[in-house]
Amino acid sequence: MGVFKFNLTVYSSLGFVDTYIFARKMLRHLIPQTLNSAFMTLACKMRSLFLPPRLPRSLIYPHQQTPDKTPDHHHNPEVERLLKEELCGYPPYTARKIRHGFQDAIMIRDYKRRQVAAHYSDLRLRLNAIRKNTILPKEIIDIASLQIASLPRDSCWTRIKNRCVVTSRRRGVQDRWRISRIIWRRYADYNKMSGALWGAWSSNTQSVRRHMFWPPPKNQSVEEYIERYYKQIADN
């Protein structure tokens, strides 16, 4: 109200009517603000009555922040001990080059498709055998066709696409190992891929099997010719 009196004093020179209008405007703005603040104070006091009592400070564990010594950046003895004893030489999570487990949602979908296809494989094999049978009556063949059409779509093995089991990569997958060419090369470089050898070339780079014709030459028997053929397969 001190501000209100000050403003009345300042604007008293404007006349009685102007001062009265100004006073009404000030009261119109001041009364709602005063009521709002009073209601807020009353609400806070009523809320404090229903709140549970506060815990004494003696029961609260005093948290003390004691700065630890920053470990060395390289060759920290504590880290070396943990790697050797706790992790058995296995690198920590941030240092792993390959993330194990499911890589993405597509890899999980492929895994579920393989489970469904394996579950319905025997049933689909028998139903397809009935469908392609030319001796059975037409009604039985139609029933088998309806049954195989009612099976889940993922029960067909053609829905399965080979993916890399390590990185979930779709292209460049070696079907024999089910890993991508990048992971295959990474394992083969460090002698972790069974049967993988470094490529070697010699002066005789011409494929012998490609230039073996049939029938064999007259000066060579059939047994020697076939033995030479299988020997070249074993060498390659």
Automatic annotation (TrEMBL):
Record-level GO cellular component terms: mitochondrial small ribosomal subunit
Domain of life per record: Eukaryota
Keywords: Ribonucleoprotein, Ribosomal protein
GO biological process: one example: translation
Chain segments annotated as transmembrane: none
Database matches in Gene3D superfamilies: 1.10.287.1480
GO molecular function, one term: structural constituent of ribosome
UniProt-listed InterPro entries: Ribosomal_uS14
UniProt xrefs under PANTHER family: 30S RIBOSOMAL PROTEIN S14, SMALL RIBOSOMAL SUBUNIT PROTEIN US14M
Membership in a protein family: Belongs to the universal ribosomal protein uS14 family.
The name this protein goes by in its record: 28S ribosomal protein S14, mitochondrial
Record organism: Paragonimus westermani
